[in-house]
Amino acid sequence: MEDRLDKLRARLPVNIFRTLHRSILMLFAVVVISIVTLVHISVSKIVAEQSRAQQKSHSPALQLVVEQLMQPLHISQTLAKAKELKDLMRSPKDNEDQIFATLKRLNKEFSLNFFIASEISRIQYDSEGRKIELTEDKVDWYFRYKAQPEDAMADIGQWQNPQFYIDLKIYDDENNFLGVFGVGKSLNAFTKVFNEYKKTYGYDFIFVDQNKDITLTSDPELLIKGVTFKNLAGLPWFQTLKPEQQQGSLNNLLLKINGQEALIAELNIQPFDWTLYIITPLQSRQTEISRGFIISIVTLLAVIFGLFLLIYNLLYYFKKDIQKIKQIDILTELANRSNITLKFEELMYEKQPVSVVLIDLDNFMPINETHGRKAGDIVLRQVAQMLQQDSREKDILGRWSGAEFILLMPDTGPHEAVELCQELCKKMAAMTITTGTTSIHITGSFGVSFTATPRSMSEVISAADDALFSAKRDGRNMVRMQLIDSD
After folding, report:
1. Percent of the chain beyond pLDDT 90?
2. How many CB atoms lie within 10 A of CB 89?
3. Do 280 and 294 touch, CB atoms closer than 8 A?
4. How much is the CA Rg of the chain, to the nearest whole Å?
5. What are the residues whose beta carbons fall under 8 Å from the beta carbon of 196, sequence distance 6 or more?
6. Which of 90, 280, 339, 456 could form a disulfide with 335 if both were Cys (CB 3.0 to 4.6 A apart)?
């Protein structure tokens, strides 16, 4: 029965997560369609033909941001959490064939370039089957990025065939740095998309980083040459702006580019700390209409982009909640052993003194044998409820094993813990538990240990177990204390 419950508990969060994932994506699609439709109807009241033309011209902007930038980021973040990847990076020299096979499979599946830069082997492996030694004279980006505090970075590299890279630092379960996992996309692929957009609609895109270096653009003349970025400050139209305009936002700014009026829309790409400028050529008679439309489109993109990030974070935090569900004992709804262990380690990390109490129900096996397991489950649940209700708010209660509970009492000395446990012991002995037509009385033995300094849980539990044994030996239904020698 317990095995079936455990399997059900393991499957349930996954199914819930998948259902929520699909539901949120459907909701996101509905919201996007609704907003686009609303903007279309509003602008069409001003000038129908102008509205439809400009609606079509800006529709690819969302596709550009989400598909060309956000999707590679989402893919890389998802893959970086995979246990398979971390296992490969722990022993790269023993798994080189598997590393190349995995990178090649990912390349085929996502049509992106992938690489692993191993801190252990100091070798970079890529999906094209190449190996590059990680030395500062050959691969300076690795050491530059490793020294930075950020765990994620967007960059342009591989100057012979420039690539847009998203680099993520990878750590093992002990937070040891294993290296970098990266996703790359050729700038030629971006150029092709930009050219199609510009050819169809006549609009230009310019992406700049926090230093105003141009990273991506629809103008081939502005793309990176050799190892040098073009800077926004070097563009003729930018130089015509006042100093305060150059330092501030360019959103909704009207200016002349190559003798023609243009309107600039600005959008922050927060995950990369980049800024996107959409440059819209205007006819004089269409300036006001176009200004209003561009404002609407930028607002629309900002809302949709914000919704995308909101949904992504909701999924992330929901997944964390699912992990919490897995740390709950399904019968008593208390923290299970792994959860209690984690809480104890947190207390030790914070260097908090803590009393640890093991509580074992006396003569519990005869209850199962006489009244059945169902009655035993009722006893466990009601005892858990009593302990939970009568413990202090700061105390942490969990189920340790079959008929054994554990109580962590932070900032509580051993003698105070003994007094509190004696009250719990009396209340448990006074309980009458009804199972059908049968009334059951139960008592418990309490073993108290204490540590004022960081120790392993096994050491503190061992002392509590000795105290519990003394309580059992001395007649049960009592509290005993066993201190660790140095305490």
Report:
1. 34
2. 25
3. yes
4. 32
5. none
6. 339
- Tell me: the pLDDT tens digits for 281-313? 766 445 556 566 677 677 777 777 777 777 777
Residues 67-90: tens digit of each pLDDT: 677 788 888 888 888 888 888 898
Question: In this structure, are strands 404-410 and 274-281 parallel, antiparallel, or unpaired?
Answer: unpaired
Looking at residue 234, its pLDDT comes to 85
CB-neighbour burial class of residue 318 (10 A; exposed 0-12, middle 13-18, buried 19+): middle
Coil, strand or helix: which one is 185? strand
Higher pLDDT, 188 or 389: 389
* Lowest model confidence (mean pLDDT) among 77-91, 322-336, 401-415: 322-336
Report the candidate in 173, 184, 188 with the shortest Cα–Cα distance to residue 76: 184
Which residue, 203, 376, 176, 184, is CA-closest to 277? 203
Q: Is the pLDDT of residue 359 over 80?
A: yes
Tell me the per-residue pLDDT of 209-219, one tens digit each, with 9 for 90 and over. Answer: 888 888 888 77
DSSP state of 207: E
Q: Supply 378's token pair.
A: 């009722």
Structure tokens at 274: 């980049």
| C-beta of residue 220 within 8 angstroms of C-beta of residue 247 | no
Give the 3-state secondary structure of residue 181: strand
User: SS3 for 319?
Assistant: helix
228: amino acid identity, one letter:
T
Domains of the chain, each with CATH number or no CATH: 203-282 (3.30.450.20), 337-481 (3.30.70.270)
The pTM of the full predicted model, rounded to 2 decimals, is 0.43
Regarding beta strands 479-481 and 253-257, do their DSSP bridges make them parallel or antiparallel, or are they unpaired? unpaired
Backbone angles phi, psi at 16, to 5 degrees: -60, -45
Q: What is the spatial distance between Cα 338 and Cα 21, in angstroms, rounded to a whole number? A: 27
Q: Which residue has the higher pLDDT, 268 or 8?
A: 268
Q: Which residue from 288, 292, 212 is spatially nearest to 248, judged by alpha carbons?
A: 212
Pairing mode, if any, of strands 354-361 and 444-451? antiparallel
User: Highest mean pLDDT: which of 160-169, 185-194, 270-279, 367-376?
Assistant: 367-376
Decide: 332 and 74 in contact? Cβ < 8 Å: no
444-451 and 479-481 beta bridge pairing: parallel
